[in-house]
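Support request, priority: normal
Reporter: lab tech (M.K.)
Component: structure prediction queue

Hi team, I submitted a job for histidine kinase from Paenibacillus rigui yesterday, and the status page still shows it as pending. I've pasted the exact input below so you can check whether something in the sequence is tripping the parser. The sequence length should be 606 residues. Please let me know if I need to resubmit or if it's stuck on your end.
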Amino acid sequence: MWYNVGGGIRMRGTRSIQFIILWRLIPGLIFFVVTTGIASYILSADQLKANAYANIYDTVSQTKNYMDDRLNVLLSAVVAMSNNSFNNNSDLVQSLHRSDSPTFVPGPYDYIAWSQALNQFYSYDMVDSVVLWYNNGAISVARTDHLFSIRNFPAGPYMSRPAGSSATVFWRNLHERDLPYSGDASTQVASLYEWIGSNGLNPDGVYIVNIKPDFFKKILDSPRISENGYLMLVSPDGIMRFKPFSGKYELDDEQLQKQLLGTPDDHGRLDVRSKRGAKMDVIYDTVSTNRWKLAAVFPEEEVLSKVNNIKYLSLMITLGAVVFAILFAALLARYISKPIQHLTRQVNRIEEGHLIVTVKKWPQYEMTVLNNGLKDMVERIRALLRQVQEEQEMKRQMEISLLQAQIQPHFLYNTLFSIKQLCDMGEAKEAGSMITALSTFFRISISKGQEVISIAQELEQVQTYLFIQKMRYGDVFHYEIDVDPSLLNYPIVKLTLQPIVENAIYHGIKKSEAQGRIHITGYDAGEDIYLYVEDNGVGMHADKLDEIKASLCDMGQARVGFGIGNVHKRLQMHYGDDCGLSYESESGQGTVVVVKIRKALKQAAV
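Reply from support: The job had stalled in the queue. We restarted it manually and it finished. Here are the results:
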């Protein structure tokens, strides 16, 4: 159909050349404006970001250099003191040698030598206290505001070498004080310590210089990174920081520690997320003196706040392009949205765990390729999941078997030696009884390869073990087993009670002068079963009991015996994390070990 337009005739449905030109030109103009605005924003933002990060890099580097200088002075003094005092025939060395005597009683010259060794470090403003511990505590003195002797100093954490290290001088991050402190003193210190004696292989003692936390606090809190930014020190044994910050920017400290200590670079930058999803930047450098990481942690949004001004300006400039984007998207959506929506639905089903996809044919070749590729990928994922599940189950079974097989064999050695002694003395009947008990013990231990046996079998094995030990030690102890008979048929991980009874004998009863008593009981508690192993041995001090409880809660710590840790871990693997061992003890009053299990094993452990 034709109609008049401005004196001319135009066919219905056609457009004027002006409209066609505008239709072709406007998109190009808008694209040019948007591209120019984005490019300007990116260049300006990048320059601001570069300047902000450069300032923080300089702050970290200068702080690191200052801390290096201060710590290196202290380290050099410790090494120099060691070379001058411990490696020469000094008064201190002579005092150390005298302490090797069983009848050693320190005299005035000993105290003078110790005081001279400790005083030279206490004068440093960063030093909180100094400790000299030698020959299993024969020499155990400390210097704070005065020189004093220490009883029961916990030297254990200072006497073990970190894995892969060959040094004899070590650093320790903030930890609870090992010494008494006055009300105005900090409850925590960091430590620099050096081993004494035996060329660093099996040290005879340790020299400890405890550093005030205020020394680090002044250094870490002095630079201003941002409102919620802060400096922190990261070492293999902990993280040190002092400045408070908003909970919005709280990080996973354990993950950040692994990232910083695992990086091969001495300095650099990491991009991380807070627990609430906020984007955080970490700029780090390495303190040369102790290889700790000094890191500046800050929210990116605070440091780059000036970039937002440019962003808002760019948004104003490109506002016109948004209209174009909406119109252009509407034209394309009808053509490309349907196959993409179908592909999205398939991906969502995969995320929900439905690893089955439907492939449709589309006029767009690319969409067909994507759909076929997605189907092939899902098939491979399903195959890999089956393979991973099988491998994980095999790995779990192997780990359980390995843990069970690692129980220390010293009981077998000691029993065989006792049998030999009985044979040498002509006590054939007693030797035969012990051999019979030993065979019963290991018959139950093997259990045809089964990991789980009945409580009745477990008690029979413990009874044979106690019978053997009673033949070895005579009237040193007696025992009673009083378990509810209704519990005897329930399953239990084998070799659960024997390591506990062994500990009761060797670490409780044998150290007590009174006749020992071991009492094993068991009670029904609904879905759970509680077994108690009680002894009247020497018990444990509160700090040792707390140490064992903490170790059972965190099996990454190596402060509990391997056998007990083995039992606890195997119980949790079979019954769940809320089962396992718990301890109650009092010094001089004996120990009670509670074994909590369920009447039914976890499904994965059956």
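The CA atoms of residues 338 and 362 lie 10 Å apart. The two ends are 83 Å apart (CA to CA). Let us know if anything else looks off. Ticket resolved.
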